[in-house]
Structure formats: C-alpha cells, structure tokens
Amino acid sequence: MALLFALVFLLQTPAAPTCADVADCRAQAESAAARDDFETFHDLAWRAVQKGRKNDTDLMYLLARAQSLSGHLDDSLVMLERIAALGVRTDADTNPDFARVRLLARWPEEAAKLGFAPSPPTPGSSAPAAPAPASSAPAAPPAPAPGGGLDFDAPSITPVALAHDAVSKRFLVGDRASTRLLVIDEMSHHVVNYASGATAGFYDDLTGLAIDSRRGDLWVASAKGRGDHAESVLHKMQLVSGRTLMEVRAPEGNPAARLVDVTVAPDGTVYVIDDVDARLFRLRPGTRRLEQVMRLGAATPTAITAVDDHVLYVAVADGLLRVDVTSDKATPVKSVEKLTQFVSLSWHGNALVGVERVADSFLIVRIALDSSGTRAEPRAILAASTQPTVGTLTPEGFYYLAGPGTIRLVKVR
Fold this sequence. Notes:
CATH class of the largest domain: Mainly Beta
Structural class: alpha+beta
Strand order of the largest sheet: 1-24-23-22
Mean pLDDT: 84
Number of domains: 2
Number of helices: 7
C-alpha cells in the first residue's frame, strides 16, 4: 500500500522543466512568463543562466525578471546589482515586471546605485505629508560599531565562519549551535535566516564556508560523526538565494572523512581539508566528484586558503604548511613563534591574515612571509577578542565577530 501511495504521488508531481540549450531554455521561459506560470519561468531562466556564457547580462536580466515575478524579490534586486556591477544599465525602474521589487523598502537607495533617477512625485502629491505620530516613527538604524563595522541584533551564536558578499553587501555567518547560515545586511543591519539543515540538507555540524564571488556560488562544508564514523558533504549553493545546486561527498572506498574548511582558487577549483586522515581534496570546475590530492603529512588540519591556482596554505596542529598542488608537496612554514590553532586563514599580498587561538584569547594576526613563502616573520597582532571569533578578508580590511551582535573591521596593510 505504501508503494502504491508513493507511485500515485510521483505520478501527480509535475516534473521539473527541462530544456536542451540556452535558446530553448530562454524560449520556454518566455512562454511560461506569457502564461503567468512564474515558478516555471524562474526555473527555466535559471537553467538558461547555467547553460549560458559566464556573466551573460541578457540571461542575468531574464533571471532577475523571473525572480521578481515569482516573488524572489531580494534575489531579483541582488541580480540587478550584479548586472550593474558589470556596467550594464537596465530598465528595472520602469519595467512592470519589477513593480514588486520597486516596493521594497530599500529600493530608493538601491535605485541610485543602479543608475536610476529618483522617481517623480505622483500628480497631486507635491504637498508635504503630515508628520507621523512619534510612536509610528521608524527606528533609527543601529550605530556603527566602534572602530568600524556594524552592530546587529541576533540571538547568541556559536560562529563557524564569516564571509562577505560585496555585490549584495551582506555578511554570511555560520552558526554551529543551530546548524544554519544567517545573513546580515550591511546597510540595514537586519538579520535573516539564509539556510538551515532542514532547507539545505546540512549534516549535524557546519564546518566551513567560502564564497566564489566570480561565479556567484557559495560552498559550505558540513559533517556528522567523528573518527572512523565521520561523514561529510560539500554543498554548492546559489549565492543570491541560498538554493542548493549540488551536493558532493568524499570518494567511495576512501576512509571516513570530516571536511573542516573550504577555499576556492581563482580558476574555480574548490579545495577542502579532512581532519580525520589529514587529506586534501579538490573539486575541479564542471565536475561532480571530489578527488584526493594528497595526504598532508601533519595532524589535524583546521583552516585553508588559496594563494593562486597552484599554491595553498593549510593550518595544522603544529604549524602552517605551504602546499604546492602541482608537485603535491607540503612544506612546513618556519617561524620563531608557534603558529598553531588557527580558526581561519586568508591570503593578502605576501602575508597570511587570520584568526589564531592563543591561550584563552582569539587574535587577529598578520603573518608576513619571505619570497619563498616558507619562512614567517614575527606575527603582527591586529586585534584580539576574548570570545570565540571568526573573520573574513575584504578589500576594506579584515572583518571579524567581536562578541555577540558586533562585527568589527581592522585595516590590513
């Protein structure tokens, strides 16, 4: 009987729309829009973007229209911002397909950034409006955090990782306690749920995340179990919406793996580290399988960052490794100081910037390296926190969580 019900359900569930190529996807998408089937319009427009050339603004605009009409209003606005960042001006200020986007509270300020002139006043509305009662006045946005950054209102979190999307001006925070990702808007400081175990299929623990800003992807590592019972998944998500695009697991037949951090090289190759057997894995662009690159020859990797398409740095229990994936060689970084217990790593110029746990404090440090990349100068301490913290490097500097509800910025030379 259960099998019969399952068959009935499958027969009654509409199949996901398919299309052969970009032209077919686009034609079917426009046809769906014409008959007001906006969810199908959205799915087919997204397939057109996937099949099309990178940064094809016509296809991106098609998707922005579909997002607006299907109710994904914030995603539509972010897509318009991405199009504008590529130097293309759209007609979103007048096109009726974006009418709902223009009702968003932040549309007026975003419209100026998108190159649109202020909307003219409605006829007969030139007289100033009566002031609103004091009780209905909107609350002022939170004041900037001391020293740069922002304050936000969110329940207590156990941070796993922090990332920043410059296009949408949003921070993403991984919360280990609730196995979810939160989004903090840089302008309004509003906090919303982005994805959770229930919506994205995360395993019990979030262990790392990285943004691929060139391709608009978010990569998230999650895990469950420990030691020989550990299992992990690498999730590829659409950055603008949090929609899961792909899930990748460790190769079959390999020992148990617990993926604990992720980074993306400029060419789009994704690298992850496993702390069970100290292995480095990669996912090449356009593939769906993790491949083992090498064993690191050091215990307990905790953080990873890409320098370029060939060189990585990995933090392990007893120091830092410079990894050349071309020669499969991991070289310890020599230092007069202990460089251990790194929570996160980023590459900046000829230096590593990251969060290092020292005793009961978390230090934001910069570690300059020599020309070989294997000898470190004494670290420079940029900031410190008594709370567990994570951080992310941006062109403005290094943002880090400086306690409950506060993100701070430190400049990095």
